[in-house]
Amino acid sequence: MTHAMIFDAVRTPRGKGKKDGSLHEVKPIDLLAGLLVKLQKRHAFDPAQLDDVVMGVVSPVGEQGSVIAKTAALKAGWDVKVAGMQINRFCASGLEAVNIAAQ
Question: Does domain 28-102 sit in CATH 3.40.47.10?
Fold first, then answer.
């Protein structure tokens, strides 16, 4: 039997997409790669043992529209065999990502 393990639940910072907002210079990929690096350090796991990175991504457009979960895993230095998936369910994106990962 395969077991789903959830180590942690974290969110990246968020803000309005204004041209002079506090996050206007931060790229979505950098937010997510930083999040993955932090999770790995916090829980001391080997990313090569993972099957999937499943992320809830509301409004996957522009830089965050091309399977950012996989791209972030690569940028974080994780094994190339770790698959990535993103789900957009608007306000329920994070919850649906957890549901899919648990399946």
Answer: yes
The radius of gyration of the chain's CA atoms, rounded to the nearest angstrom, is 14
Question: What letter would DSSP give residue 49?
Answer: G
Q: Which pTM was predicted?
A: 0.81
- Reported as a single tens digit per residue, the pLDDT across 20-58 is 888 888 888 999 999 999 999 988 989 999 889 998 888
CA distances from 49 to 8, 20, 32, 46, 56 (A): 16, 40, 19, 6, 21
87 burial via Cβ count (<10 Å: 0-12, 13-18, 19+)? buried
